[in-house]
Amino acid sequence: MGKHVIKHLRTIALVGQAGSGKTSLAEALLARAGAIPAAGSVERGTSTCDYTPLEKQLQHSLKLAVASFEVNGGEAPTWVHLLDTPGYPDFLGHALPALAAVETAAIVINAQNGIEMMTGRFMQWAAKRGLDRLVIVNRIDADGVNLERLLGEIQEAFGKECLPLNLPAGGASKVSDCFFAPSGEADFSSVEDAHRALVDQVVEVDEKLMAEYLEKGEIAPEALHEPLEAAMRDGHLVPVVFCSAKTGAGVQELLDVIVKLLPNPAEGNAPRYLSVPADGGAPSEIQAVPDPSQHALAHVFKVEIDPYIGRLAVFRVHQGRLTPGMQLYVGEARKPIKPGHLYLLRGKTQIEVSEAVPGDICAIAKLDDIQFDHILHDSAEDAHIHGRPFELPTSVFGLALQPKKRGDEQKVSDVLHKLVAEDPCLRIEHNAQANETVMRGLGELHLRTTLERIAGQYKVELDTRPPSIPYRETIAARAEGHSRHKKQTGGAGQFGEVFLKVEPLPRGRGFEFVDSVKGGAIPNQFIPSVEKGVRGVLESGYVAGYPIQDVRVIVYDGKSHPVDSKDVAFMSAGRKAFLDALAKARPIVLEPIVNVQIVAPEQKMGDIAGELSGHRGQIKGSDSPRPGTVQIMAQAPLAELEHFPARLKSITAGHGSYSLEFSHYDPAPPQLQQKLVAAHKPSAHADD
Length: 688
Hints:
Elements: E1 9-15, H1 22-33, H2 53-58, E2 65-71, E3 78-84, H3 92-95, E4 104-110, H4 117-128, E5 132-138, H5 147-158, E6 162-164, E7 166-169, E8 174-177, H6 191-202, H7 207-216, H8 221-233, E9 238-242, H9 251-260, E10 272-275, E11 284-287, E12 297-306, E13 310-319, E14 329-330, E15 342-346, E16 349-353, E17 361-365, E18 375-377, E19 385-387, E20 397-403, H10 409-422, E21 427-431, E22 436-441, H11 444-457, E23 462-465, E24 472-475, E25 479-487, E26 494-504, E27 511-515, H12 527-540, E28 551-559, H13 567-584, E29 587-601, H14 605-613, E30 618-623, E31 629-637, H15 644-652, E32 657-667, H16 670-679
Parallel strand pairs: 1-3, 1-4, 4-5, 5-9, 6-9, 27-28
Antiparallel strand pairs: 2-3, 7-8, 10-11, 10-19, 12-13, 12-18, 13-17, 14-18, 15-16, 20-22, 20-23, 21-22, 24-29, 25-26, 26-28, 29-31, 29-32, 30-31
Helix pairs in contact: 1-9, 12-13
């Protein structure tokens, strides 16, 4: 495989609502470029990107897939790294990481369905990351579509900067170019008008070009190329292209847009890394440089574990050059690795390459130390460099798991660890109070498909039930606590005394431990023991047995003994002093509140609003993403939504959909607090 040239690389993520035809569009592009003999079919289970048995069975994407291919044409062949993402909100853990690996987000819209819930969310996420955005209107040949109205809806929702690069023609059997060589007929508007609107928008980013345009009234197409790219970088232009993956209309034109207009890795908004000082100081930003001669930086955005080939880590090179056999470091690890092979991916097909340069998306196999979000680098001195934290939704749906067969506990544990390594939005918790293992995901579909995979791929059967609600505890007032731990036996004794204060933190801040001891009243070597004692209480809770959060603990005084003071004494004193302070700080129970987004038939809004309000929910807003439908934004306690999927299905006759996302914790109602406190047996404090 020939070496890649950065200016001839393109990285694109196909994102959007499930059912918009992203996987079929990827097939059409691969076939048009000659990378595969013919386009596969999602329905027949022959597509390149939906290659897992469960994806073939369900006929929709569950994972992020990479399809790299070469496009011949222009001054040199262009390599395109295409990322096909799932469109259900339940699988955002596989879709959102794609945005960290590309220069361009292509938001795909089903012409029949128009703008849907995930369309707007992906537009916002892509803009927030500074990506070029491209809107692809797919399925233009479908029955009953009104493409002129849809273009107006796109411009109304996302701005007048959304302008068509081509227009459907011949009853949507083909498209007419509005930019490169504007000519031909269009089913609505006119090619000339669309071209003029593009030129008007593009010249606004170049004062000299605007002056020339105002003077001459026209600009040569070749002079528009550079300012058009600049307009896309700034979000001043969001091109819209029309196509049909099914008939092939507009697919070649889309390939031309990818090759001729989309940014290469040197032109996009370069990613920023974080430099975290070893002394715990404030992190600073480092901008990656897409230069092969620099030291290597690559980001792992996907991990896949196959029963036969093992762990496959997929990464985007942002800086430097990677080759097989070179010495690499993983994250903060000081022990280097030497990958024997580098692969490009085309679905499940692996294509061996001799090097990877900035912009390349490659994979290495059978290296178990590599995890999702790790940074690969070629110098042990770069261990301080980290990726910017992902803003992934918090998993709130849960199922308590129990193996059907006794003795399968270890097997279940191994399988769950593999699944969590692959999916950043899948979490496994152990609730010690309820003695249950809980699997949490982004929705009912997320958990159901995970269980199907456990049964089908790993041959493990599980019993499931609703889990306990993840309540939390906090305090509502400031207080002070004190404890003296003194124990005398025949030999050396134990002594430690601690004075501390507690105060509430803003919701969501977690826990802070502050050492304010002066004059060595508690020797420095015993401060970690005090903190360890305090943290032990955080996990076990105080009034109802739930973890404590949003609390600051300030240790300000104490006493020690030159002979009898030990770690165990200060750990015990710290624990008891914290419990003493909690008793005076008005401890309360918090309940999780979630954001609920519901899309349903418009006439059902009143019924849904009544259902939510009857379960302590609050409507926060609504809009109409397309005629006849309503999108409701609400908040509700998670505890009230256990049977909501079945209730929504009943209200809407199966035509409603929803997604949940963790929002925050709020104090539980007094009656619920009393019930939870009464149910708790405070055995953890029985000896205090």
